[in-house]
Amino acid sequence: MTEIIIPIKSLKLAKQRLTPVLTPSERTALVLAMLEDLLTTVSLLDHGKVWIVASDDAVFDVARKHGACPVREPEATGYNEAVLLGLAATRTQSNVAVLPGDIPLATASEIAALIAPAPSDKPHIRLAAARDLQGTNGLFMSKKGLVRPAFGANSFSLYKQASQKAGVHPQILEAPGLALDIDTSADLHDLALHVRGGATHGFFNKSRGSFCGHPIERGAA
Prior knowledge:
Layout: E1 3-7, H1 24-42, E2 50-54, H2 57-65, E3 69-72, H3 79-89, E4 96-98, H4 108-115, E5 125-129, E6 136-141, H5 155-165, E7 171-173, H6 176-179, H7 185-194, H8 198-207, E8 210-211, E9 214-215
Parallel strand pairs: 1-2, 1-4, 2-3, 5-7
Antiparallel strand pairs: 4-6, 5-6, 8-9
Helix pairs in contact: 1-2, 1-8
């Protein structure tokens, strides 16, 4: 089965681009709610261990609630470094997948398609793009080390190039739920319009539809 790595930024630093519409406590609440919903969806699937790489006890409380394994960062040195910490925790020969923590609309079927065990002994890589087709919101490797972590600007293109250099033709997944990660106020508005339940929906309900004086429409319950 596939082991899953989910890195979570320090809550003090998370979602800085949402500062115009969210207070620090709201940003923290949103991060934890989205992680809660992602782990709830993952729990519906067959998978190996889930590793949460983070530096905040509040994140680990959510992780343990869902049976995930905490990996504490000694210091926050970056997203790709956090992925490397997670990879170091996984078994040597395990299939491995990396997911961001801010994809609460990802469906069980989308995640299942990403983490499905490799169909053969040949090296296998799957990629799911962010909706801007620049970032990467899902990475699967039939064994760790096929490509180095390269999350960030233009990572989707970089992963495709790295896969080909490794002699692997990557499988590209079409997954609209996986594609929406929450970085900007526009992303937040889209999330509010489409979320239909769970902790993230509860977050919007508690907000009463407005953040820092900015109205945000909510989807139906």
